[in-house]
Amino acid sequence: MKVLKSITILASLLIPFSGEAQSILQQNYPKVAGYVGILHPIATFSSTGTDTNFDGHYVVGMPTGINIWKSARIGFSAEFVPTIRVENGIGKMSNFLFHPGVLVALGNGFTFAGRAAFETSGRFGLTPVINKTVIRNKSCSYFVALPFPLRFGNDRPSSFGIGFQFGIAF
């Protein structure tokens, strides 16, 4: 009888807490989030050779975007990336990228972004991105990402690259 009474008391204490935890974790959709970051291209590979950042020039981008999550699993993203190139002591905005795409939550803080790419340089293509949330706070989260740009057009050979991006989402 004492065991049954103890179980009943324990269950009555746990039920409100588990209900609270479920309501806290439940999100309302659609959910909108913005983000900003810094992008460092690492290397670009094409039939003309390999171009690496920091080798005679420095390129940096500032991705800024909006994510609209339809559900906990799928969403849409629109990203805008101005790029600055510094070479021989002269810096200039060298490109602007419009980067719309689909978001797929993979679990454990990982997200896949499949993006189309349209550049003012005349290039276009696709950019698969693997993103990982590394710190999640109440008001923001910090992330790292690996973009793999595949580009075509503008009378240049096709290219494939890899970059490193980090940023903050809010």
Write structural notes for this entry:
By secondary structure, the chain is mainly beta. Helices cover 14% and strands 62% of the residues. It has one helix and eleven strands, in the order αβββββββββββ. Strands 1, 2, 3, 4, 5, 6, 7, 8, 9, 10 and 11 form an eleven-stranded antiparallel beta sheet that branches. It is globular and about 50 Å long. It starts with a helix and ends with a strand. The relative contact order is 0.17. About 11% of the residues have low confidence.
**Average pLDDT, all residues:** 90
| Topology pattern, helix = H, strand = E | HEEEEEEEEEEE
Task: Extract low-pLDDT stretches.
Answer: 6-23
Residues in helices, as a percent range? 10-25%
Give me the number of helical elements.
1
Could you tell me the strand content as a percent range? over 45%
What about the largest sheet?
11 strands, antiparallel
Structural class: mainly beta
Count the E strands.
Answer: 11
Q: Which of globular, elongated, flat, extended, rod-shaped describes the shape?
A: globular
Evaluate the radius of gyration.
Answer: 22 Å
How far the N terminus sits from the C terminus, by CA atoms, comes to: 52 Å
